[in-house]
Write a structure and sequence with these properties.
By secondary structure, the protein is α+β, with helices and mostly antiparallel strands. The protein contains four helices and nine strands.
Length: about 160
């Protein structure tokens, strides 16, 4: 059974997979069918996982698993990683992109990690930009604080004000 994030415990684990480009409608439809099937059968040591997913910004796929009854094991996490490797091969997408994803309305602008300082200098990335961070502590954090301001994320070191 696929669960909506609202049905899962706030302490549920979250995995975020960011595509290196926006997904087309047909790709989203395929991915939704694929993940519905895979997550419905997802298990850890033979025990079904209470899990779900959502696609955000037509570019990020978030997987949720309530681990109160059964924790996701190394093998089950590996299988979920394989889903995205397989989907990436099928569609020519890198779901393991680690560029900084700046949220602009309902779209993302990706800034390569090596381009962060330049993006700041050019005003593309600033402290108040919302960014879709690749990791969150749990479903509660994801639901209430994601995306987050760059100044509150791992990027905060780039925005520290110098004192004289």
């Amino acid at each position: 059974m696929i669960f909506k994030k609202e049905q899962l415990d706030p302490t549920s684990r979250v995995w975020i997979y960011q595509a290196n480009r926006k997904l087309h409608e047909s790709e989203i439809a395929f991915i939704e069918q694929f993940l519905n099937r895979e997550i419905d059968e997802w298990s850890a040591h033979g025990a079904s996982l209470q899990a779900g997913f959502e696609i955000r910004f037509d570019q990020i796929i978030c997987i949720f698993a309530d681990e109160r009854q059964h924790a996701a094991s190394g093998c089950s996490i590996d299988s979920s990683t394989r889903w995205f490797k397989d989907l990436g091969e099928k569609f020519g997408i890198d779901f393991f992109d680690r560029s900084v994803a700046i949220v602009q309305d309902k779209n993302l602008q990706l800034v390569p990690l090596l381009g962060i300082k330049k993006a700041i200098e050019e005003g593309i990335l600033h402290a108040d930009c919302l960014i879709a961070t690749p990791q969150v502590a749990n479903l509660a954090t994801y639901s209430n604080q994601w995306p987050e301001k760059a100044q509150n994320s791992w990027l905060k070191r780039y925005f520290k004000k110098e004192t004289i």
